[in-house]
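Entry 12.
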Amino acid sequence: MLGTIVNVFAVIAGGSLGLVLNKKLPDRFIRIFFQVIGLFTLFLGFSMAFETTHVLHMIIALITGSLIGELMRLDRLFDHMGYYLKTKFKFKNARFTEGLLTAFLLYCMGSLTILGAIEEGMGGSPKLLLIKSLMDGVSSIALASGLGAGVLFSVVPLFIYQGGITLLAAGLGEFVPQIFITELSAVGGILLVGLGINILDIKKINVMNMLPALLMIIILLWLIPDFGI
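Predicted 3D structure (tokens):
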């Protein structure tokens, strides 16, 4: 899992630099950082979502996944975890949890994450993940400068998610259809759109409770692969 390990260290390095800049930059620079991150997140989310070829699968996955997340109250669980970490390490940033979730979604929802992890898991070069590591390291500077230390802690779910795909691909990679990668990335794009709206303070969208949609799209494609438009 060389690619994932390098990715983790790139985020930690970039995020640490962002925290140093956060203490030295005026508030107006932090605000413009948020606006840029929000707009880029919207662009990235829409571009990913438009790649879908199974719109009905996407809609059903988002609805059922959001209901499951609401029933499980994932937002509360995530808030409690964020509060525990913030208290444990004595961080004062009010946007700690938001930074953790924002960074995780940005780093993990793209097709580059899935393709790179599968390629490395099947014995190929970690080239894609190394390219992604450079991109994530640079973006983590801006994220951490605006959202604080939560960005650094995003490496934990990043390692579990990306590393898990790599390990899974080591045994099953050749059986993963391309459509699974495309549609998983498309659903992730919708979540990123919601995240961008949150960052820009347009409207509060509970993206955390929508995360089970990522699992539901895989289940739907496996059960009824030909149902969709």
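Annotation: The radius of gyration is 17 Å. The chain has one domain: 2-223.
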